[in-house]
Specification:
Strand content: 5-15%
Oligomer: single chain
Structural class: alpha/beta
Strand order of the largest sheet: 4-5-7-9-8-10-11-12-13-14-15
Helix content: 25-40%
Number of helices: 18
Radius of gyration: 22 Å
Largest sheet: 11 strands, mixed
Shape: globular
């Protein structure tokens, strides 16, 4: 079964269970008079003062980093945000960017006014002598560049470890990655929005206690592919100093060719009936129609051979023509268990043993006999677990190892594998027939507060979670980890789990030589 069909079915299950997670964003308050709240909640930015909230940390939400991309600015590069007078309330998140119904982490809406960011920072008292010197972590949320919002990933725990944490919204799907000649440059707007947010960080980090000369970009899945894009984009040069790539092997994705992107745009334009007078027709369409025509299960990426991204991330890493900063790159041990579990939840029944071979043949075609010999059903507890292992090793583990090898030729690189087996389950979903272990996304509850979908991290894993948080913040501060560099350690990959924190036997565990030779 394809990813699209699996996600569609799982989404239907989620909808029937009331798990669409269509979070209603509160109304954004604009300029307000100065009140009696302590000055530590008020910060002067380059566009005006903002008032946040203070507790364990200081939090500022819904700060504009660019002008609303509405009207004539639809499908245009982000423009500077307007200045304001007085104090702007920054105590609630702004609305998410327009996105369809489709997957549970989404926030379905047709809102175009969405270019806002959030800042979480230690309190003024905590900052002390380190004010202005805290490492800054800029989080780029995942969701296939189609779904989600920055505010879903709370930064309190990272801030308590000493970082200033910034998250942002950016244009998604059809609003951020439409590639048609009638809208020049529209095929990379999501990445351009992120660059605009990074320029805002450079100008304003110090006001929140952060170091503008020590900015780490980090992202997972679609956000991780965005980080790959910033590594490859000349326009991102100088906007960040370290990078964290989670579950996004740059060597195997991260971009579309112009031909692929334009073919997708023609499909959308035809569905909208905009083949003639395309530019005006597209601009006259309501967002809801644009979202419907684009579809809920697309996989947009920035387009190569453009000014924004002359080379694909893979080619940039191969040739060394990328923004060379220290990189922390990692993958989850059981990435594709999430996909197979989704299929099980959608169908209401586990995969049957007799379904395993047909599934492998559908996925791997002419190499299926070799895959079946390497991943015999008798080696695994169920057909679903066997299929997930083959898919994980081929689509995630092997290209992540290749990405680390390419990066490490040119820049300091640290590699990890998140391998925790007792990860939190998805809140409200029925239990599947086998454990998810370290499936796609499962590292997120260890790094962020209340990320979409997940139950709380078990109490007996509190020390492990703290170690994860300290690892990420230490890398942001220094560009190093407590394990060796990938290259000097001869393909060193560190296992991260509550029971094991040591070198992984990564290549053997994931049959990477087999997969490299099978293509």
């Amino acid at each position: 079964m394809t990813n699209t069909k699996i996600v569609a079915k799982w989404s239907a299950v989620a909808a029937s269970m009331g798990l669409g997670l269509a979070l209603a964003a509160p109304t954004l308050a604009h300029a307000a008079p100065v009140g009696t709240i302590a000055d530590r909640t008020v910060v002067a930015t380059t566009n005006g003062k903002v008032r946040g909230t203070a507790g364990e940390v200081r939090t500022f939400q819904g700060i504009p980093y660019a002008a609303p991309p509405v009207g004539d600015l639809r499908w245009k590069s982000p423009q500077p945000a307007a200045r304001w007078t007085g104090i702007r309330e920054a105590t609630a998140p702004a609305q998410a960017c327009a996105q369809p119904e489709g997957i549970p982490i989404g926030i379905p809406n047709d809102n175009e006014d969405c270019l806002y960011l959030n800042v979480t920072t230690p309190t003024a008292k905590q900052a002390g002598k380190q004010a202005g010197k805290r490492p800054v972590i800029v989080w780029i949320h995942g969701g296939s560049l189609m779904y989600g919002a920055g505010h879903q990933y709370g930064g309190t725990s990272l801030a308590e470890q000493g970082a200033v944490v910034v998250s942002m919204n950016y244009r998604l799907g059809v609003m951020g990655f439409l590639s048609d000649p009638s809208q020049p440059g529209a095929d990379g707007l999501g990445l351009e929005d992120q660059q605009a947010a990074l320029r805002w960080v450079k100008a304003n980090a110090a006001a929140f206690g952060g170091d503008p000369d020590n900015v780490t970009i980090a992202g997972q899945s679609g956000g991780g592919y965005s980080v790959c894009g910033h590594l490859a984009s000349p326009a991102s040069a100088g906007l960040f100093h370290r990078a964290v790539v989670q579950s996004a092997p740059c060597a195997a994705g991260g971009s579309r060719t112009r031909a692929e992107a334009e073919a997708d745009a023609r499909r959308v334009i035809a569905a909208l009936g905009c083949e003639t007078g395309t530019a005006d027709c597209l601009r006259d369409k309501p967002v809801s129609e644009l979202l419907a025509a684009y579809g809920p299960y697309n996989e947009p990426r920035p387009v190569t051979d453009t000014e924004l991204m002359p080379l694909s991330p893979a080619e940039a890493l191969r040739t060394g023509r990328f923004n060379r900063v220290p990189v922390l790159i990692g993958v989850n041990h059981d990435e594709e268990r999430g996909r197979v579990i989704g299929q099980e939840l959608a169908s209401g029944a586990p995969m049957k043993p007799e379904e395993y071979e047909p599934a492998i043949r559908q996925e791997f075609g002419s190499t299926s006999d070799a895959v079946l010999a390497r991943y015999p059903l008798t080696r695994y507890g169920s057909a679903g677990e066997a299929l997930a292992a083959a898919l994980t090793d081929s689509a995630w583990s092997t290209p992540t190892l290749e990405t680390a090898r390419l990066l490490s030729r040119w820049t300091p690189t640290r590699a990890y594998e998140f391998s925790e087996r007792g990860t939190p389950w998805f809140e409200g979903f029925p239990k599947p027939s086998f454990e998810q272990h370290a499936a796609h996304m499962t590292e997120l509850p260890y790094l962020f507060d209340h990320p979409p979908l997940f139950e709380e991290v078990p109490a007996d894993q509190a020390r492990f979670r703290t170690r994860m948080l300290r690892t990420w913040t230490h890398f942001a501060a220094t560009g190093k980890t407590d394990w060796p560099d990938f290259r000097t350690g001869r393909d060193y990959v560190q296992t991260l789990s509550s029971t094991t924190w040591k070198r992984a036997d990564f290549a053997a565990d994931h049959n990477t030589t087999f997969w490299q030779n099978s293509h």
